[in-house]
Amino acid sequence: MRTELQIPSDLKFLAIVEAWLLDCLQVELGDRIDWDKQSSRLRLALVEAYSNVVRHAHKEQPEVPVLLRLELKDDIFLLEIWDSGNGFDLSTYMAPDPSACQEGGYGWLIMKRLMDRVEYQLQVNGKNCLKLETRLPSKIDDSEEE
Is 64 exposed, middle or buried (0-12, 13-18, 19+ CB in 10 A)? Predict the structure, then answer.
């Protein structure tokens, strides 16, 4: 399954973005996965990625839409978030120090913990792409782990 959503760069559309993601997955996967465990994880990663685009990449250009592409191959979830901002230089990223009261910088850390693979491509055909990938364990896999 592949689908995409082009949506305005405005946090008032966050609920629509979340519903799009979860509804698409629900239609495709049905009850094959544990929604209680997986939906929270996927929602949090999406919210972090989309809100970062709105607040940072498109801060000076809210009229520019965000493109979200969702692909599901068997049990592999892949989400691409495309923006038209200046981009983020990952070589300058420093993970937050838990002992300091740092206000920002947690997004990358959160996404890396929630997903199996996080990749950021700066300026691909004039746009930036954040790729989030993870395996969605089936209910059978979950019960075997317990």
Answer: middle
CA 105 to chain centre: 16
pLDDT at position 98 is 67
Q: Which residue has the tokens 């978030």?
A: 81
Between vectors from CA 103 to CA 99 and to CA 109, what angle results, nearest 5°?
A: 75
Instruction: Provide the 3-class DSSP secondary structure of residue 37.
Output: helix
| Domain boundaries of the chain, sorted by first residue | 2-145
Q: List the 76-83 sheet strands across, edge first.
A: 2-7, 66-73, 76-83, 127-135, 117-124
Which letter does DSSP use for residue 103 in this model? -
- Classify strands 2-7 and 117-124 as parallel, antiparallel or unpaired: unpaired
| pTM confidence score | 0.88
CATH code for the part of the protein at 2-145: 3.30.565.10
- Decide if pLDDT at 88 tops 90: no
